Structure prediction request, 546 residues.
Amino acid sequence: MMQRFLEDYSGEIFDVIIVGGGITGAAVAYDAASRGLSVALVEKDDYGWATSAATSKLIHGGLRYLQNLEFSLVRESLRERRIMENIAPNLVYPIQFLVPGYSDMKRNKWILRTGLTVYDVLSYDRGMTWDKSKRIPHHSWVSKEKVIDMEPEVRTLGLTGGTIYYDCQSIYPERLTLAFIKSAIKHGAKASNYAKVTGFLFSNKNKVQGVRVEDGLSGKTIDIKGSLVINCGGPWADIILNLADASGESRHRIKRSEGIHFITKKFKTRHAVVMWTPAGRHFFTIPWRGYQLIGTTDKEYVGSPDEWRVTRKSIEELIRDTNDSIGDGKLQYEDVTFAFGGLRPLVDTQTEGTYESSRKYEIHDNASEGFDGLITVEGGKYTTSRHLAQSVLEMVEKKLNRRPVDPITEKDFLYGCDIKDMEAFMDDMKSRYKNFSTQTIEYLGKNYGTESAAVFELAGKEKNLAELISEDGQIMASVVYALRNESARTLNDILFRRTGVGNIGHPGEDILDKVAHTAAKELSWDHGKLDQELKIADAALRLPSA
Prediction:
């Protein structure tokens, strides 16, 4: 279903070329294609590999934005949270948060309750979900004793009570990004991962009319022409924009924030718990796939985004914050199973620290800078990506002098997500696939939605494809499905952005070897390529030594 169009590209001129295959580029591609525009999307690495794979797995209203009085951003986020519940019911679920209240001002229970009351008011349409099980209730107050009973790991010194509120969890954001790209392809878009933009094409009148792309797999250079180019490069947006500047001057700069997470089994909470660092920044510990997901950090990063890596120092800083906030205070580096992170592009230049910076987005028509035919999108987040795309298309339609077309992205299920009742869907799966464990059925049902039938079909044809490859139910058939149907081209694509096997740490040498040999067979890798892929994957699965 997903084919790299570069391999068969014959010179088609597109209405829109999108640079960047994270959630922003994916959402823009879907909206544009669904309105009848011809669309090409190119991504220099794999779809959703960078910022879009570095989240806290949440679709949320942005409670903390209230302290900046960004009411319109919070309202937009809360509306879009509900829409995500509707259009991706298997990938987005309500999740309960416990917010312990303390005697200090930052965590005062009355301030928290006031904020959550406003949060409830701004999410007045939260009950308007297509699936009744997705409806989110009001926040509620709990006593100090109840907090301790609910979560024994919470620190009791200065505890005054707590508050319960709800947001949503996106259990596998990488597959949510993939669902947007598949939706775009369903409507006629062409997409290619491993397609790096190395320059822009210009007309005689100095108007941008396309991009020069290097195919990362074949090494070929290909010129792709289009009426408009939309820069959705995230942390690379300024670097892409500077490619259009014939003067050779790097005039454009964006602010970047580093955020990391780690998972552990050292302690467990029953609910997602909001915690605070000594400096007053909040972060989360969230039950996820049998682990505790802890994050995120928020620290300015200065340097090339290509050189950024998760470091031991940044993990240890997050461990210290965790030990200051919850549990017995004895969490150590050795207790961390896996760590991941990335860079966020920020558009707010008015604040010194990135934690105080807004998560709003901006859409720039670069014609004012001498680059007509180029639009740059900066900022944004998962939750508001669909609406951001809608705003981008309003500008696109004006630039192309097209009659405005009503968007459908709020009304239609994403690809593979056409499920009106998740409970009934899962019950049907369990009755249909009785030879598989409940754990496997739930894993595939949630992560693949209606596509899970094709994965089970593969497993039914070949016994070895029914083999478990993760502790929470993933099976080998998903590896073959990723290679044949989801444009996976590397071992890391399979492990991290298709199957989820690698997102909970090293699966063990035996499973890693079996997954790699399956990929080698499907993609005709020789021994040298297989060894190279194994070394790259093994390094990505291990914690950094420095």
